[in-house]
Every structure is written in structure tokens, then in C-alpha cells.
Amino acid sequence: MTEAIAVSGLRKSYGRAVALDGLDLSVAQGEVHGFLGPNGSGKTTTIRILLGLLRADGGTARLLGGDPWREATAVHRRLAYVPGDVTLWPNFTGGEVIDLLGRLRGGLDAKRRASLLERFELDPTKKARAYSKGNRQKVALISALASDVELLILDEPTSGLDPLMEATFRDCVEEERHSGRTILLSSHILSEVETLCERVTIIRAGRTVESGTLAEMRHLTRTSIAADLTRHPAGLDQLPGVHDLDVQDFSGTGAAAPGARVRCEVDTGKLGEVLRRLTEAGVLSLVSQPPTLEELFLRHYAGDARSGDAT
Amino acid sequence: MTAAAAPGARGGTGLRARAGSLAGSGVLARLAARRDRVMLPAWIYVVTILVVSTGYSFKGLYKTPASRAAIAAGIGHDAATLALGGPLYGTSIGALTVYKVGAGSALAAGLMSIFLVIRHTRADEEAGRLELVGSTAVGRGAPLAVGLLLAALANGVLALLIFAGQAAIGLPAGGSAALGLAIGSCGLCFAAVAAVAAQLSATARGARGIAIGVLVASYLVMSAGAAARGGGLRWLLWLSPIGWVTQIRAYAGDDWPALLLPVAAAAVVAAAAVALAGRRDLGAGLVPPRPGPARAARSLRSPLALAWRLQRAGLLAWTAGALVYGAAFGSIAHNIGSLLGSGAHVKNAITRLGGQSSLTDAYLAATMSIVGLVVTGYAISVVLRLRSDETTQRAEPVLATATRRASWGESYLAVAAGGSAVVLAAAGLGSGLAYGLRGGGAGTEVPRLLGAALAQWPAVVVLAGVAVLLFGLVPEFCVAGGWSALGLAALRRRDIG
Q1: What residues contact residue A268 under an 8 Å CB cut-off, 6+ apart?
Q2: By the CB < 8 Å criterion, does B203 face chain A?
Q3: CA-based nearest distance A63→chain B, Å
Q4: What is the CATH number of domain A222-290?
Q5: pLDDT in tens, B111-140
Q6: Which CATH superfamily hosts domain A3-218?
Q7: pTM of the entire structure?
């Protein structure tokens, strides 16, 4: 596996404020990688170091096999970047900015430019000062997506887009994935990362707290189960790995009614044992839900929030 | 009966709506005054000092009535000289002061008022700040009212200080009051013009352009009227707010009723602005924005092309300004001896600045040295765009492309260096043509003055380089440092002489 981005032990401080405190990030060539973290966790600082805009205080960073600081120009020819907060030159039109940035990178695909303008419904003849935040973001996105590059670095690219445009954006990323481009997608919108990314890295306070495929992470989480049973299940409350168990007993209310309704959260490793007990009690209906990234996220930050409340 | 009652009811709500449209003005005015607490006093101070220091130095320079009569004759003799400063009425110290700085300080008061009004109306609106303010219990008309109120206050204080300063150095109180009110009311006129411009254009930049265009046109109309020397076009003085400043004839009869003209004009134009403001949407201008090109020009493909594109409109304006400035000073050069009269101090001052044998050459050299300083200001403002691009994050998308950091910086330095050469050349060309056509022979004077202007170029580039160096070393202080370097250069230049 060749790595498009390889970062390890990255450190950066602004005066006494520590922005990055030993951050690790690894993105394979051709994958869509989610880069998740709450506001102020260091996502943008990491990206700026990768782009050679900031110099790291410590640790190593490689980008497309090159040094992001010393070989910035050569590396930038092969990537396109969309900032989270797009500022444009007020008296340039959107079309001019798209062309200019594309040319400064080294080339723009005219056909893709035209089709993207249509798909994102952007009027390229308007002056940048007249664009809303979402439209400024579209300008940067179209310029990046239409550029002939191998790597796209997108910093919260949909924060100003409406749901329809978000859907268009997802389609575009899907296509990029199929054409083999590498994408680093920084976001705090979990559903976006969940549908688009094969692997994610979650950071908090300048540190990587978790990294891997979504499947690997689900390993660490619980599946929620809701089941209607003919009889009261035996011994569920004694099983390790079962949480928040709620059993409603309906026995004696009528022959057609279920005997019991069970809701619980199960550690993924204990799922087999729980299902066996449920089957023994006669399953009438069963709903199981995989953990969402929201739950992953809450687990990582919940501790933080609680300790914050305590102090 | 309902029909009869309806108009009355509507009138009632109309009245209430009008009163309500100014709601919140008090809070906004305090906010605006706080934002301007440094800028506005600085403007007022500079304009006051400009007037009073001129009056004070004239008192020292022209002590005898004979020396005053000589200089007045020299001025009145030359149309180009009159066009620069305005008509000269009488030979008193006060009258000479009005000739020397009256129109100029009216121009400055106009600029102050234009910037002030647009800062609190269109600029806030464009930046989206008024959207937030407008959603609170602040009336639709409040921001405009606050801008005009603050301008009235600033011009009132300016008038008062000019009166007090001039009276304090011993000039007649009546004339001093007339001059202060003339300049203040002229500022008020341009506050009203700016208020209308802020309704017309959807951008602060455009609004400033319209208002400053009116200001410059007013000065040119005044110039044409003054140059007529009592001839056929003299009535032009009555068509321009800057002409009115001269027609009030401070220290030369004090024509008080003439003050009604600027006051009435300001009131009418301000009323027009209020009427326009009541009719339009927030954020919109009456001049609709034009769509631009859907594709970038073929040439827009390098950091240098980007810097050029961003700076070319400014360079064009500077070049035109330098041409006019050069022509204005070139056209009075041959008459400089009689203009200075017996004022040996001024002659000394000029020969010290220029260090040449002939007085005219010394005068031209001094003018070029001033041009050099001003053009250095242009060059510094261009390279300091590096810093503002950085702080506004506009540099980020460019530096994330295959653009070397150095070439991004070099592009601004190149525009500053090339642009300042062009501006200097325009000043040299303007003064060479004007001086040559009025006496010296354009064939010899154009190359000579072109050379004199371009001789300033190395100094300009060195100071722009200092600003870039500061940007590299201590970016937080490069703006203050760059302008301080220019200030130091200006002071050193005086010391050397």
C-alpha cells in the first residue's frame, strides 16, 4: 500500500497554545479518508502543515512522497485544496477564480469544468463579492474537482452547501473514488463521512484517538437490539456485554400478543450469545442497528464533556 | 365613511413609520463615534493644522504690505496659478491664506466626509454588518442618519477649530469664522453627496468612486472659474461646492449670504439620499451590478498576472493623477520667481530642498522630490497587499497551488517597482510638457524632467524593498513599519537640505 499522506507525531504550538500534540494520520493512495474532530481539534492546522503553509514544530509529514515544506511547489502541482472558509477577490467573477486557481495548479479539464458548473448550478459571471458563503465554496470545489490532480484535500467542504448541493457533492466524491483519486475529507458532519469514507481518523485536542476502517471501529461499539418474543427470555440480565436492558413482560394479556418485548445494547463480541438466548425465547420480530458514527463520536467526547461538567 | 377615514389612518402609520425608521439611532451613533474615535479627530486635526500653520507662516513671511502686494500681483497675473489654488481676493494675510489652502482644505474636508459617511452606510451594508443591525430594533433610516449626523458634527468641530486657530494667530475674527464655516459647509455638501452615492452603488468602493469623482469635478470646475480671472467663465465658481468656499470671500468682505448655498445644497442632496434609501432593498444599489466574464482571460495564469490584474485599476488612477499633478506644477514653474515675490524664506527653503542654481530648476527639483515621496507611498501600499492577502486568507488558496512563496511575493514587488516607474514617468511627462509648452520648449524639457522624475525611482524601490523585508521578518508590524520608513525618509529629506 502506497501512502498518499503519512503523518506521525506531528506537533505545532502557537505560543503557549498547543494545537497539535503528536498527531498521526495515514491515508493510502486511492482511498477516501475521513478526518474527524470537533471544532478546534487541529484539523485545519494539520492540513495547513500538509500544504506547507505552516511549519511543524516536531514529527514527520510526507505528502505524495514529498516533503510538504521543502517540496511544496512540486507536490502542489498534484493536489487541489478547498478551504473551509473560502475568501475570494471581490471583483473577480467565479469563472475567473476557477480558471486562475486551476491554471496555477497546472491544468483544468474544460469539459469537467462545464459539467460541474451545471451540476452545482453556479453562475460563473457573478462577481465574488455577490456570492453567498455556499457559492464561494462551490467556486473552490469546482476548481478543485476540475483540476487534473491525484489528491484532493477538502476542509469541511460542505459547511455552506444546502442539502441538494451536498448530495451533488457526494456524487462527485463517489466518482472521484472510482477514478482512483485520493481524498482527505475533513469534517464534523458524521453522516457525510460515514457514507463517503472507507477509513476515518478521529482526532481530539491535537491527538489521534482512533484510526481505521469503519468496520474495525464498529468492533469496539455496541449494536442496539429490539425484539418481540413469545416468552420471557432467560438470563439476559446476567450476560456480560449487555447494557441498558429493558424487558417488558406481556404474558397473560392474550394469546395473540407477544410474551415479552426486549431492548438492549450489546457489545459486538457478545452478539452470538445474546441471539441464542433470544431464539430460545421464540423470536417474533427482531430489529438490530449497527452503531452510527454519531455513537462512536459521542463515546470519544462524552468523557470529555462529563469531566467538564464535574469541574 | 371608511373610505374617508382611510387616508387619515394611512397618514398616521406613515408618520409613525417615519419616526420608527430612525429608531435606535442613538445607540448606533454612539457605536459609530466609538469606531471613529481615532480616525476622525486625526482628520480634523490635520485639516485644522494645514490652515492655521499656513496662516502663521504667512504672517512671518510677508510682513510688509508691499511684499504682500507683490506676491498677490504675481498670483493674480497667472491663470495656471489661480487654477491651482482658486481666486485671490485682496492682499491681506487672511486672503493669501484662503488662496493658498482654502480650496485644498475644502477638498480634504470633502474627502473626510465622504469616507466617514460611506464607512457607516454602504461599507457596513456590504460587509453584512447592517443585516445583523437591521434585524434588531433599529430603523431602516438610522444608519444613514447616523452617518450624516456624525459628518455634521465633524464638520462643525472643524469649522470651530479653524475659526479659533485663525483668530488665535491674530487674524480678523469675522473672516476666520467665515473661512471655518465655508470649509465646514463644503464638507457637509460632500457628506450629502456621499450619502447619495452610497444609495447608487452596491459596493463601498463604487460609492467612494462616485463621490470622489464629484469632488474632483467640483475642484476642476472651480479651477476653470478661477483661471478665467474675471473673464467669461467666472460664473463657474458659483456652480461648484469648492467654488463656494472661495466665493464666501473670507477676510475680503465676508459674503455671509453665500453660506446659504452650501447649506441649502447639502440639505437638498441629503433629502434625496434619504428618499432613495427608503425605496431600495438592503444590500442592493440603484446601479445594478454587471455580470463579468465567465472565463478568465488567457493571460491570467501566473501570480504576476494576478497581482497585475488586482493592481491595474489603481495604477491607472495613480498614473492619471501624476500626469495632472505634474502638469499643474509644471505650468506654474516659469512664473515661480514672481510668485515668491520677495519672500526670501521660501526661496531659501526651495533652493535648500532642490539645491540648484536657478530658482525654477530648484522649484522643479523640489516638486520631483515630493512626487518621489508620494510615489513611494504608492509602492509601499502595493507591497503591503502581501500582508492583507495573508490576514484575509486570500493568499491561502494561491499558495496551496503550485506557486512558490517567493514568486507570490515577487509578483507584488514587480508590480510596485514597474508601477512606480510608470507613475514617476507620468509626473515627469506632465510637468515637462506643461513647462515646455509655456516657455522652455517641450523638446528639451520633456526628456529633462522625465529624467528628473525617474531619478527618484531607486529610492522608491529601496523603500518598497524595506517594506517587503519587514513583511518577511516581522509580519505583524510590517504595515506600521513600512509607513514609518516612509515618514523617516520624508524627515531625512528635509534634514539633508
Answers
A1: A218, A219, A220, A221, A222, A223
A2: yes
A3: 13
A4: 3.30.70
A5: 999 999 999 998 888 877 777 776 777 777
A6: P-loop containing nucleotide triphosphate hydrolases (3.40.50.300)
A7: 0.71
